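Please check this chain.
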Amino acid sequence: MSMTQRQLPARRLSSMLGERHGEQPAYSWLSEGIRQLVTNGRVLHGTMLPSERELVGALGLSRTTVTRAYQELRERGFAEARQGSGTQIRIPGGNVGGGSEPLTAGSPELVAPGGIDLTCGAPTAPVGLAGFYERALDQLPGYIGGMGYYPLGLPVLREVIAADYVRRGLPTSPEQIIVTAGALSGVASIARSILGPGARVLAESPSYPNSVSSLRQHGARLTALPIGPEGSDVPGIETALARGGFSAMLCLPDFHNPTGSLLGDEGRERWAGALDRHGVHGIVDETNAELWLDSRPSVAPMAAYSNNLITVGSASKTYWGGLRLGWIRAPHALVGAIHQGRATMDLGAPVLEQIVLSLLITERAGVDEATRTRLRENRDWLHAGLVEALPEWKIRKPAGGMSLWCNLPAPRSMALAAQAKKSGLVLTPGSVFAVDDHGLDRWLRVPYALDRSELEVALPLLVDAWKAVA
């Protein structure tokens, strides 16, 4: 369905606006109410508003009032008149869209006009995000009297992040939190602090390519340890660590990217114990920890099993990638060293976004039930469609995360990606997620975070591309 085909019924708009209160003129209430729905993402760019006659009947207002409200929306750039169609919502400056998550292990893929980007495993912004920015602007004057540098992060944000760990069963003080410009910045800061040149780092393969690249850019020598679709091989991890020689290990126990596996408490405790026994720093990436779809997992944060683990979190998947904020939860003894390492990269994250994130976390306004339902339905639909169309593929349905990790019957994922690109479908082959920069050509990550309408177009393109190369 194209943007111009969206139609907002009068009764639906009436319920979204709610009751009018106070002495605000009716036309101003209606115009401002619709504008707020647009800025909060509840009414999208390209949506056709109800006709003036329909809205008069639904709201009980005069035709003059509705006409004046629509005119005010047009004058402010939030609507335009469509000849023969009515009034259509506009976003001032246009709907930019895009902004997909880049994967540094491969060359940036450009999506042709009308194409579909099936590489990004991240949700869109939550409904109402613009309202949080407006509230944050009200608080901003309290900060602009100073220089604006908060190298460790705003105190209020460090407090709410620490409180969220406490809520999850991990005692944490604000002094243990360092706010960063995303999880990737957190990994880089940790590497600069605890790893010397040429340090050996153990990482499960496949793994998140940006973190792997960050460690490698620091000069670390990575050793790959296979992880299957069923999850982490804890005995294999224990054996590898026992061989010695490792300074750190990258750990993704929470809806692992890209496999989607979730490690239970017993496995977390054994893994943390092995790291402690062999004096290896564990860098725990919790970016996907809140991306459960079927039921909230009753697992403790991995750092609950060791006082030596360093945890990295991110706002990108739970809230919005555009915030560009993350954090480090570090043992007290390492906070100073990590702060020094981070100071060579930047002097702190933007103040306004930190205020926004503190509000979002406090009100738990991240992945809401409506978003989980949409993602769960997309996952189920895409999984069923692939299983039916390509029964030779082996696809485990994860309990969380943002993508399916598909096992192909032949090592053809790179050829598949090249073929799909010809029809405007951009895919990420499995080799991008390989720690050794090669292999995994029998695997393909297929995200399901896009709108269903885009997935419905992408699925037959993917099936046709596979048939062409298989």
